[in-house]
Amino acid sequence: MAINWFKYSAPSTFYGLAGKMIPWFAIPSVVLFAVGLYIGFFVAPVDAVQGEAYRIIFIHVPASILSMFLYLVMAGYAALGLIFNTRLSSMMATALAPTGAMFAFISLWTGALWGKPMWGAWWVWDARLTSELILLFLYFGFIALHASIDDPRRADRAAALLAIVGSVNVPIIYFSVKWWNTLHQGSTIKFTGTSMHVAMQEAMFITLLACWFYAVAMALIRVRSIILERERNNLWVSELKEVNS
Amino acid sequence: MNQLSIFKLLNLVIRRDLLLAMRRRADVLTILVFFVLVVSLFPLGVGPEMDMLRKMAAGVLWVAALLASMLSLGRLFSADYLDGTLEQMMLAPQSLSVLVLGKMIAHWFVSGLPLVLMAPVLGLQFDMSVPALLVLMLSLLLGTPILSMLGAIGAALTLGLRGGGVLLSLLVLPLCIPVLIFGSGAVEAVTSGLSVVSNLSLIGALFVLCLVFTPWVTAQALRISME
Predict the structure, then answer these.
(1) Within a domain: residue A189?
(2) Is the dihedral of CA A218, A224, A228, A229 positive or negative?
(3) In the predicted model, what is the mean pLDDT of chain B?
(4) Within a domain: residue A2?
(5) Minimum CA–CA partner of B171 in chain A
(6) Which residues of B touch A141 (CB under 8 A)?
(7) Partner residue facing A137 (CB), from B161, B174, B188
(8) CB contact under 8 A, B224 and A157
(9) Does a structural domain hold residue A1?
């Protein structure tokens, strides 16, 4: 049976589909978090060099990966919305932005907590830290631009253009910061995970999946709210059970 | 009508914008005074030790130039937007990208070039050597047009919005970071006896990249803002 994908590009039909999909992502996310963190905190051995403090990577690494990945997904959805003029794509981009910004923030915060015992400083101007901080600013720019334009269609398109310009800029910013860093200071202590214990790998992989499922669930919950907010004057919204009750 | 060549069109737009800027000279001077003021604040804030000032000079001048160019960006399209000229430009048969490029160039003449010319005088206050001053001027000469071009995208996106100025800085400043790094990096390189070619080449590459893409992107942004 062929699935008609275009059917679900209409907000009214996607609203119901998203509602059905949320538990399929939310529940696995909770379970995977529990399993991943259990392995991370109780099964994985103590690191020879870094002691117990290394365990923060089970949050830190997935958050960093997702913060970068979500920006690209967001820019992708925004581009789709701009090119094909589909409302739902733009709504998805808007729904992803806060989750991505949150992951960028968690990544910076946990990085600081890890840096204090390891590097002896909450913050060092390392290339990766700096580019993560700039990524957080890019998220803020996207959210702020979208929030300050009253007309939602114009907001969608303007923010989309910004997201595309930003995603073109991300590699340029990353490499410029990297070269700047090597110019200014010697290499800082690098965590080279060449011989990671299997349990560490497992825990990190499972928490990464958990974060991934969490991001999808959150985006779906948020996109449902956005759909309701924007379509509130339409007939199908007023016929919904949850709206009437 | 369509006989107008691209260069004639550019020339017309640049001359018009420069003429308008000359009628309001205070705006241009304010930016320059702001630049001088911000640069002068740093020694007061961190102390007058010449060794430290010499090390900071390039970064301070570049950051001040970045902030000064943000100030003037709000005016890039807003006057034309308010009196309806921008709408006529969009209806014109000529390419909007070329018109936008003309406005960018005029903006750089008004807000970028004065900073480039002023920078060596301020550099002397920080006890910079002559080769460093020359490289600083060269890096600003290549880098400030990029600020105008990237800033134009932000100015077009925030056209007619409340609180546009702060928002504009939030959007544009992160995008300008590579220019800042390579610009002050070039000066750093010359003071520590390294070759400046790599840094200046990278700014040059960014300049060419921006020259090709930003007029078109800004034109799209204007279309989004005006509909």
Answers:
(1) yes
(2) positive
(3) 90
(4) no
(5) A141
(6) 170-171, 174
(7) B174
(8) yes
(9) no
Residue B103: pLDDT band by 50, 70, 90 thresholds?
very high
pLDDT in tens, B104-153: 999 999 999 999 999 999 999 888 899 999 999 999 999 999 999 999 99
Answer whether residue A3 is part of any domain: no
Domain total for chain A? 1
Written as one letter, the residue type at A97 is A
Which of A140, A161, A179 faces B170 most closely, judged by CB atoms?
Answer: A140
* Residue A34 structure tokens: 């529990």
Of B175, B185, B225, Cβ closest to residue A169? B175
Tokens linked to B204: 């040059």
Restricting to B residues 11-50, those with a Cβ less than 8 Å away from any Cβ of A are none
Task: Tell me the pLDDT band of A187, cut-offs 50, 70 and 90.
Answer: very low
Instruction: Cite the DSSP H helix spans in chain B.
Output: 6-23, 25-46, 50-73, 75-82, 85-91, 96-107, 113-125, 130-157, 164-191, 197-226
The reported pLDDT for the residue numbered A179 is 78
Give this prediction's pTM: 0.88
Closest chain B C-alpha to A172 CA, distance in angstroms: 7
d(CA B147, CA B144): 5
Per-residue pLDDT for A54 more than 90? no
Q: Which domain holds residue A146?
A: 19-244
Name chain A contacts of B221, Cβ cutoff 8 Å.
158, 161
